[in-house]
Specification:
By secondary structure, the protein is mostly helical. It is 53% helix and 0% strand.
């Protein structure tokens, strides 16, 4: 090529503006709401089929080992001895921002004073506040009483059984709705609190971009076994609270260790 043409070509290339590529930021990880450490559903439910988190055999092993462990080592808590949706709702609301042992004391005291949903619905708010005093975050008690009033006035004292209907009640989010539906009515409802989210994240070795509330809710729905949501949900919370803890997980005694993906990746 003649030198004059080479100069023209170089000038033309130099004159083309450069466009700086935009790199999307990495996910900051799971987004938790403060109440009960429950995972917020930060977007509407997916209209597409959720991504399969693992092979079905792995999911079955996860379910089986978790339930077998819970049947031997599950915590004996007073709200697990009842299927009364009102008592279960009281316990779930109290466990928001409150340690289990402290919640037990107030749970029994509260139910002695307001043993039924009708009793709480008819109570004076100052009296409810007095009974709640010491637990803090009084908005929880106010929402609990508003929910009781709505159930008495609009549902004739009978709790709705589906998570979607429960979520329409004051102060009830997806976690609490799933807990009441599965524990009281044995519905196949998933739950996702901070303990469950931590177990799922570690067991399936989810990368940071998969540690979003939306994806973790998808995973929770995938792994909750049909007909056994009640025991599975209790089990995943218990193992997260006692073995798969946040700072120093007790992997050496974890029943999930033989099939845990994080353990497998660390070998």
């Amino acid at each position: 090529m003649p030198p004059s043409l080479l100069v023209c070509a170089a000038t033309l290339v130099a004159s083309i503006p450069r466009v700086k590529a935009k790199v999307p930021p990495l996910s900051s990880g799971p987004r938790f709401c403060h109440n009960h450490g429950a995972m917020k559903k930060t977007s509407s439910p997916a209209t597409h089929a959720p991504e399969q988190v693992a092979h079905p055999a792995t999911i079955r092993a996860f379910q089986r080992r978790l339930i077998e462990w819970y049947q031997r080592h599950g915590r004996d808590l007073p709200w697990r001895r009842t299927r009364d949706p009102y008592a279960i709702l009281v316990s779930e609301v109290m466990l928001q921002q409150t340690q289990v042992q402290r919640a037990i004391l107030y749970y029994e005291k509260f139910l002695r004073r307001y043993p039924t949903v009708e009793d709480l619905a008819r109570a004076d708010e100052p009296a409810v506040r007095e009974t709640w005093e010491g637990l803090g975050y009084y908005a929880r008690a106010r929402n609990l009483q508003r929910t009781s009033q709505k159930i008495v006035d609009e549902y004739k004292g009978r709790f709705p059984k589906n998570p979607q209907d429960l979520e329409a009640l004051p102060g009830i989010g997806p976690y609490t709705a799933g807990a009441v539906a599965s524990f009281a009515f044995r519905r196949d409802a998933a739950i996702l609190d901070t303990n469950a989210a931590r177990v799922l994240t570690r067991f399936f070795a989810l990368p940071p971009e998969r540690q979003t509330s939306r994806f973790l809710w998808d995973v929770a729905h995938q792994v909750t076994p049909a007909g056994k949501a009640y025991i599975f949900n209790q089990a995943i919370m218990d193992i997260g609270a006692t073995i798969c803890v946040a700072r120093t997980p007790r992997c050496s005694v974890c029943p999930l260790r033989p099939v845990c993906r994080s353990v497998e990746k660390s070998r």
